[in-house]
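Title: Comparing notes on inverse folding

I've been comparing how different people in this forum approach sequence design from structure. To keep things fair, I'm posting one structure and asking everyone to reply with a full sequence. Here's the target:
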């Protein structure tokens, strides 16, 4: 593998994680506002609660 192929493979493998991180940073206020709802959903989706999974 020559150096150009290596750099192309490296850039290719880092593109999606970088994009996801940048999007998360850009929308961190909105994501933080949704966290209480996600915690409530997580608590309701436990075994023993209506609609909770027993597996």
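Reply #1:
Here's my take.
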């Amino acid at each position: 593998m020559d150096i150009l192929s290596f750099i192309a493979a490296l850039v290719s493998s880092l593109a999606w994680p970088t994009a996801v991180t940048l999007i998360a940073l850009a929308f961190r206020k909105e994501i933080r506002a949704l966290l209480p709802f996600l915690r409530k959903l997580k608590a309701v989706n436990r075994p023993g609660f209506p609609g909770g999974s027993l597996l």
